[in-house]
Design a protein that fits this description.
The protein is an alpha/beta fold and 275 residues long. It is built from 11 helices and 7 strands. The radius of gyration is 17 Å and the shape is globular. Bound molecules: adenosine-5'-diphosphate and magnesium ion. May play a role in septum formation.
Length: 275
């Protein structure tokens, strides 16, 4: 059993990698569900117009649903768009709709265009009565204004890396953007976590990629590796995370272990700061 306690500040993580199909959404929803199962209160913000995170969390997100688009473009309070996932009362979702596809361009002419999500979250957290332990932001596959809003609002960056060819390709561009954000928009953003995903232990290549990433980022890479697993890829078509779809599958177990690791690491950091 796992002994974890949630009492502290709200950790805001953005799950980013400008490559598509690397496991951002899968990681966001399954880590969120695993954290909620540990007793954390978690809010997922779906910042991808495709709305895959909303789908996987079983949250309606048709075109007429109030969504993160209304928050970013019209200043609607986040509290008015939040829905609770049927999986857990601890698991909340700010859904995306197809309207968000236009936001990338609409944001260009907005006041404080890089800070709109940050301001919305600050207002939301100020007015909140209950505890909220984690906010996880699922980013679209680009380094446009939506992703920049996520980087500006977050205090941690989680990068999922697929254990395949070209895994590190594009990473220097991502890290360059992060440095720019740290200098100009958000001094507090920290690359805290790298998660190796879609690992196929039968191939030498996957092992080599994992070793190489660990060599580059020894303190950020989680020990837990997420295996490639059919159950993980099936779950969203049932509007579920793998945690509820098949909690005993290898993928679910790995995501639960990764969630525990993320919580433990934060406690280690806190005690370092305190000592
Ligand atoms: P992104 O959000 O980065 O575009 P997704 O999370 O949507 O990536 O994942 C891309 C595809 O890979 C999806 O079809 C997803 O179901 C599948 N996938 C992700 N992680 C795994 C895994 N561990 N095992 C098997 N399939 C996976
Ligand atoms: Mg995605």
């Amino acid at each position: 059993s796992v002994d974890v306690e949630f009492t502290g500040r709200t950790r805001i993580l953005t799950i980013s990698n400008q490559k598509g199909g690397v496991g951002k959404t899968t990681t966001t929803v399954n880590i969120a569900a695993a954290l909620a199962a540990l007793g954390a209160r978690v809010l997922v913000i779906d910042l991808d117009p495709q709305g895959n995170a909303s789908t996987a969390l079983g949250v309606p997100h048709s075109a007429d649903t109030a969504s993160i688009y209304d928050v970013l473009i019209d200043g609607m309070p986040i509290s008015e768009i939040i829905q609770t996932s049927p999986e857990s009362e601890n698991l909340l979702c700010a859904p995306s709709t197809i309207h968000l596809a236009g936001a990338e361009i609409e944001l260009v002419s907005q006041v404080a265009r890089e800070h709109r999500l940050r301001t919305a979250l600050e207002n939301y957290l100020q007015g909140l009565d209950e505890r909220l332990d984690f906010i996880l932001i699922d980013c679209p596959p680009s380094l446009g204004l939506l992703t920049i809003n996520a980087f500006t609002a977050a205090n941690e960056l989680l990068i999922p890396i697929q254990c395949e060819y070209y895994a590190l390709e594009g990473l220097s561009q991502l890290l360059g953007t992060v440095t720019m954000i740290q200098q100009h928009l958000n001094h507090g953003l920290e690359l805290s976590t790298i998660m190796l995903t879609m690992y196929d232990g039968r191939t030498r290549l996957a092992q080599q990629v994992a070793d190489e990433v660990r060599e580059h980022f020894p303190s950020q890479v989680l020990e837990t590796i997420i295996p490639r697993s059919v159950r993980v890829s099936e779950a969203p078509s049932f509007g579920q995370t793998v945690i509820s779809y098949d909690g005993h599958s290898a993928g679910a177990i790995a995501y639960k272990e990764a969630a525990v690791e993320m919580v433990r690491r934060s406690h280690e950091n806190t005690s370092e700061e305190e000592s």
